[in-house]
Amino acid sequence: MPLLAQGDARWAQRQPQWRERELALPWPRELLETFTLRMSSHGMCVSRALMLCDRRYALEQLAHAHNLADDALHLMVEQLFRHFEARQSGIPARH
């Protein structure tokens, strides 16, 4: 089962009041801000609000960033994806 589907399955099993509190992805604030600014330098507008509350949107933005020819952006994508993976798996993220 893919990682995202595992996280979705765990989320669906939780009580509704707890689900609503888990919608936001706790991205490292400064990294998310730097990521969105770097994406804008490539003409791509990234919504911080959607990055925080929509997992699929967030993964799409990481994929778009990964496809750009920007080594600094690739490093940010790697860091953000590791953080996402850790969140989905329940393993604490290392910074």
Description of the molecule:
The chain is mainly α and 95 residues long. The chain has one domain. 71% of the residues lie in helices and 0% in strands. The chain is built from six helices and no strands. α3 runs antiparallel to α6. The radius of gyration is 14 Å and the shape is globular. The relative contact order is 0.16. About 5% of the residues have low confidence.
Features:
95 residues, mainly alpha, 6 helices, 71% helix
Provide the number of structural domains: 1
- What spatial form do the alpha-carbon principal axes imply? globular
The largest sheet, given as strand count, sense and whether it forms a barrel, is: none
- The average pLDDT score comes to 80
Question: Quick summary of this structure?
Answer:
The chain is mostly helical. The protein has six helices and no strands. The protein has one domain.
SSE map:
Layout: H1 3-13, H2 16-21, H3 29-41, H4 48-53, H5 55-66, H6 71-89
Helix pairs in contact: 3-6, 5-6
